[in-house]
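Sequence in, structure out. Go.
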Amino acid sequence: MTTTPGTERRARFIVMWDVPSDIAAFERHYLDVHIPLATQLPGLRRYTRSHNAAPVRGEPYYMVGMLDWDDMASLKAAFGSEIGRRTAADTALLERYATMRSMILQLDDV
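Output:
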C-alpha cells in the first residue's frame, strides 16, 4: 500500500533497552507498572516488544519495544498528554536498571 500525497503516514516509537543491572526488578516494574501506563496512551494502535532481537551488526539489545499510532500528530498528542508525561516519568525510573535509546519513525509504505 502506498501513501497518497497529502495523507498522514503512520508513526512508530521504538525503545531499545540494554541488559538491565537487575533483570528481575526491571521486568517486574516493566510488566506491573510501565506497560499498564503505556497502553493507556491516547490513540495507541499497537504495542509490541521483543526479547529476541538478533543483531545484524553490533551488540544485541535486551529488549525492543514498538508503539504505533495512526499518524505523527496522534503520537505527539499522546506524548503531550497527562498519561504521556506519567509514562515518561516512569521510563526514568526504569533507567535506574538499564540504558534506553529511542527514536520516532514516520512510516512510509512502499
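Check: The CA atoms of residues 23 and 86 lie 23 Å apart. The mean pLDDT is 91.
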